[in-house]
Amino acid sequence: MALTSVTFLGPQASFSHQAAVEAFGTSAELIPRPSFSDAFAAVQNQDVDYAIVPFENSTNGSVLQTLDLLADADAAYKDVQVCGEHYLTVHHCLLARKGIFASGEQDYSSITKLYTHPQAWGQCENFLGEHFKGVERQDVSSTSKGAEIVSKETTERSAAIASRFAAEYHGLDILAENIEDNSNNTTRFLVLRNTKSERSSRDSFEHIKAQNRQEPPTNIPAAKKNKNLISFMVREDTPGALADALLIFKSHGMNLTSINSRPSQKAAWHYVFLVECQTTTTDDGQEIATGVVADLQQVTEACRYLGTWTDQLVSTGN
Amino acid sequence: MALTSVTFLGPQASFSHQAAVEAFGTSAELIPRPSFSDAFAAVQNQDVDYAIVPFENSTNGSVLQTLDLLADADAAYKDVQVCGEHYLTVHHCLLARKGIFASGEQDYSSITKLYTHPQAWGQCENFLGEHFKGVERQDVSSTSKGAEIVSKETTERSAAIASRFAAEYHGLDILAENIEDNSNNTTRFLVLRNTKSERSSRDSFEHIKAQNRQEPPTNIPAAKKNKNLISFMVREDTPGALADALLIFKSHGMNLTSINSRPSQKAAWHYVFLVECQTTTTDDGQEIATGVVADLQQVTEACRYLGTWTDQLVSTGN
């Protein structure tokens, strides 16, 4: 049987690539795609078995591109569903070309230029304020792109802010590790599959993930909670429709865990709501979610079931 | 009495500036601020009577900076409340230096460079595809900044994509009008005041707005609906809390019209929900909203009333 194939948001050594390696291991075939919509299209067209896309960051909130593609205004991805999730803690390192700094050197004053993604400057303000006041900064399209640029320079003494994963991929020295202000900054990725594919399933993904952890599958707690994603549309001028829709979740014993709304692109002030919910029991959840969808179809427009998967969040409250 | 002062998100001739002129008229003192947080701080510090900030676009969705400042994780803006809203339709024009093109000229082939905000390229794709294939594009920080640059050039034959308002402000010729793909693209602005200020109120704003329309205030329909904004926090690991909170709105006869969630910045996967709601009756709404808040305080954390104002949306459904 061919290798399991997984697409991620490129370039190589991006945080999405790291999430793909953590979730699927290095024995899967991992294929970068340049955009979110390319990753969704790859799953819809069954070019790959799975895609892994960022969905939500603990500091910055929802990833709007992913929400819009799940909302799927043009019905371009109608067979794409969520079958898993993966949490990745975002750590940043200061990286330089191999050997140009003595091991353990703490004096960065000879570094003349820094490269990273605009968001990473803001995530490392304390470290940058302490060591890099006034040093030239160059924005790049991704942290791993910055690491790549630094790895290819021959004359400048520049550095990149990127992950340990990017350092290893591009063969860079790590001058300082965990330089981010908030060491708990975490991104939740969703794993997508095509419902018509026989090469992918929720169970298959969980089996791959468990193997990759190098733990026997029996180590997964039996009482793991499920998560479900359902979308529907409500017009702003239909009084009570949103509350009625949300009540349906409760009447089926589903807890609402998140609600996002996006413009439907059908008309102004017409929204798609994307609701994540959980059953309070330890059952599979999918059957209940299907019941919720059937009832939602009475009070909403274009209601769609977008998948059931196993909750991977290790919460202090659990 | 001193002029009413209003701050808006700069630079001069921005869409926020245009919204401020439409809502407050030219007799108010209009003051640009460089950032969203500066505009909120100006209201909190009573440096101005009002601020007008973009809240939601009919195509792109919520403006996250405004949501985060209303969510107010650090309690920096605790006296800031919403007292009004204003809808602005976003129209784009092709603008050039006065006199360098003959009036009515439809041949743009001598234009060598275009300036606009990155979002505006995407909003004018059809027009640009028809007339400007392969022409150099320069991103600028705002559409009005592009208009300013073009107005100051002396040698180049460049053009900017910006509003009619920016054309008039910077003294530019309008070569083509309404070049946007979607003529209904609309931004909703919120009007903010300080609850401790005696110089501002919901009634004062509505009076100013009505005067500025050059209609007598009695022309405002008596049955205008209200809108209310309330924020609260729910932990992801508190099953049922979100549904319970949303049920409270229904039990007070409040319709949910929008729900946004943002990371609380207190802990990972801990959210602030910002809920807009409407009473079904024609009353003021504020008293009911206060009752909702009192009940919400039983099941949520840090619940806050963020204002009541008159719904300005002219919907086909009304």
What features would you describe in this structure?
The structure is a homodimer of 318-residue chains. Chain A has helices at residues 15-24, 36-44, 64-71, 118-123, 125-131, 143-152, 164-170, 202-212, 241-251, 286-299; strands spanning 5-9, 29-33, 50-57, 61-62, 80-89, 93-97, 113-116, 136-139, 158-162, 172-177, 186-194, 226-235, 254-263, 270-279, 301-310. The two termini of chain A are 39 Å apart. In chain A, helix 9 (241-251) runs antiparallel to helix 10 (286-299). The radius of gyration of chain A is 22 Å and the shape is elongated. Chain A is α/β, with parallel strands linked by helices and 318 residues long. Chain A has ten helices and 15 strands. In chain A, strands 1, 2, 3, 4, 5 and 11 form a six-stranded mixed beta sheet that branches. Chain A is 29% helix and 32% strand. The first copy, chain A, folds into three domains: 1-89 and 185-220, 3-Layer(aba) Sandwich (D-Maltodextrin-Binding Protein, domain 2), CATH 3.40.190; 93-177, D-Maltodextrin-Binding Protein, domain 2, CATH 3.40.190; 221-318, Alpha-Beta Plaits (2-Layer Sandwich). Residues 216-220 of chain A have low confidence and may be disordered. In chain A, strand 13 (254-263) and strand 14 (270-279) form a beta hairpin. Chains A, B: Pfam families: PDT. Chains A, B: Keywords: Amino-acid biosynthesis, Aromatic amino acid biosynthesis, Lyase, Phenylalanine biosynthesis. Chains A, B: Residues 5-194 form the Prephenate dehydratase domain. Chains A, B: It catalyses: prephenate + H(+) = 3-phenylpyruvate + CO2 + H2O. Chains A, B: Its EC number is 4.2.1.51.
